[in-house]
Design a protein that fits this description.
Layout (H helix, E strand, L loop, with lengths): L19 H11 L5 E2 L14 H10 L13 H13 L10 E4 L1 H11 L7 E6 L3 H9 L3 E8 L5 E2 L1 H6 L5 E7 L11 H13 L3 E5 L23 E7 L12 E7 L5 H13 L5 H12 L4 H5 L4 H14 L4 E2 L8 E2 L2 E2 L1 H4 L4 H12 L1 E2 L1 E2 L11 E4 L4 H16 L5
Parallel strand pairs: 1-13, 3-4, 3-6, 6-7, 7-8
Antiparallel strand pairs: 2-9, 4-5, 8-9, 10-12, 11-15, 14-15
Length: 405
């Protein structure tokens, strides 16, 4: 019998956040080791619970969750999202402009499958959340990575973006607040990016899943609030702001030049119908989450737990000789740089495995985020302050004697 091979469509699809390093960590756990996981932005395991009223509303509505909903989602959920869009100053969004999905991840894939023909190109940031690059490839397209400049606080390099546009470029991806860097783009940068999209007739995909996780009085501006003449699709959900990652409840908002994209929007509606609907019990959480007390504000304020953990991570990483880190303004991550020459690092995945084996700390290597050089890694600052301090103290011990063979 011939070996059964995976599809050729998967040839350029990678998701190393759950790749070989995580498998090594699982093996070590099975052997009895305790691994401190700084690899995934999953709040619940670190005691960051969702608001109780959301859970209670879902429980209360379970008897009404047994059937399919409208393929775009529950009316109550989409109405709450529509009102949230109004709060974010996104103009002319109606109930039918919103599609609820099984997390933003499903909707990213859906939106790209509905758009791309084989060989089409999409501008994706480097570093990126790797699902974007993988979903472009799975949809037959090619991700073209524009550089975000570490020396400028990880802002997009607009000249690099302009230089990489070709006649095949169909869309531009923004991740703001950014995963993995924690950068939050100011209005002036967003306007310049939108002008590039305008000049080249690009669709804009704006991933804003961390839009409430902001530090140091930084404000988030929704991309779609700045341009009504471009087709902009905004992605958001419950996973991070409301600590409900396991509910897999996200949405996309279609706004702007909808009249120029009727055929594409029909394609999105077709794909939404093919998966019947999103998870109905989880959709009952949306109205309560968006309309209730925003407890995330307490966590990111001075003295709040996430703010404390961000500060500890930033300060202790920068105290490691040979390691430097730009201070994240949002999201849940630091993306520190290693002095590759000092540590003789030529393979960042190998470094991450060495850290795991020696100190039982799990992080993600920078090339997993489509960063070209093996000189970065991502740290999640979700552990409690004392655990964060312990982990980074061990990390310092590791780097003080590390030389990659």
């Amino acid at each position: 019998m011939h070996e059964i091979l995976k599809s050729d469509k998967l040839a350029n699809v990678f998701y190393d956040l759950r790749g070989p390093v995580l498998q090594a960590a699982k093996r070590m756990e099975e052997e009895g080791h305790r691994i401190l996981k700084l690899n995934i932005g999953n709040p619940k395991p670190f005691g960051l619970d969702a608001p109780e009223e959301i859970i209670q509303d879902v429980i209360y509505n379970l008897p009404d969750s047994e059937g399919y909903s409208d393929s775009k989602g529950l009316f109550s959920a989409r109405k709450a999202i529509m009102q949230y869009a109004q709060q974010k100053n996104i103009a002319n969004v109606g109930i039918e402009d919103i599609i609820v999905g099984n997390g933003v991840s499903e909707l990213i894939v859906l939106s790209l499958q509905g758009l791309l023909n084989n060989g089409d190109e999409v501008l994706v940031p480097a570093p990126d959340y790797p699902l974007w690059t993988g979903a472009v490839a799975l949809s037959g397209g090619r991700a073209v990575h524009y550089i975000c400049d570490e020396g400028a606080g990880w802002m997009p390099d607009l000249d690099d973006m302009r230089a990489k546009i070709t006649p095949k470029t169909r869309a531009m991806v923004l991740i703001n607040p950014n995963n993995p860097t924690g950068a939050v783009y100011p209005k002036e940068v967003l306007l310049q990016m939108l002008e590039i999209a305008r000049q080249h007739n690009l669709i804009v995909f704006s991933d804003e899943i961390y839009d409430k996780i902001l530090f140091d009085e930084v404000e988030h501006v929704s991309t779609a609030s700045l341009a009504e003449d471009l087709l902009i699709i905004t992605f958001n959900g419950l996973s991070k702001n409301y600590r409900l990652a396991g509910f897999r409840s996200g949405w996309m908002i279609i706004s702007g030049a909808k009249h120029k994209a009727r055929d594409y929007i029909q394609g999105l509606e077709l794909l939404a119908s093919m998966r019947m609907c999103a998870n109905v019990p989880a959709m009952f959480a949306i109205q309560t989450a968006l309309g209730g007390y925003q407890s995330i504000n307490d966590l990111v304020a001075p003295g709040g737990r996430l703010r404390q953990q961000r500060d500890i991570a930033y300060e202790l990483l920068n105290q490691i000789p040979g390691v430097s880190c730009v201070k994240p303004q949002g999201a849940l991550y630091c993306f520190p740089k290693m002095d590759a020459k000092k540590f003789n690092i030529h393979n960042d995945e190998r470094m991450v495995l060495d850290l795991l084996e020696q100190q039982k700390i799990l992080v993600v290597h920078g090339t997993a985020f489509n960063w070209a050089q093996p000189d970065h890694f991502r740290v999640v600052f979700l552990p409690r302050p004392e655990d964060m301090t312990t982990a980074l103290t061990k990390m310092r011990t590791f780097f003080e004697q590390y030389q990659q063979l």
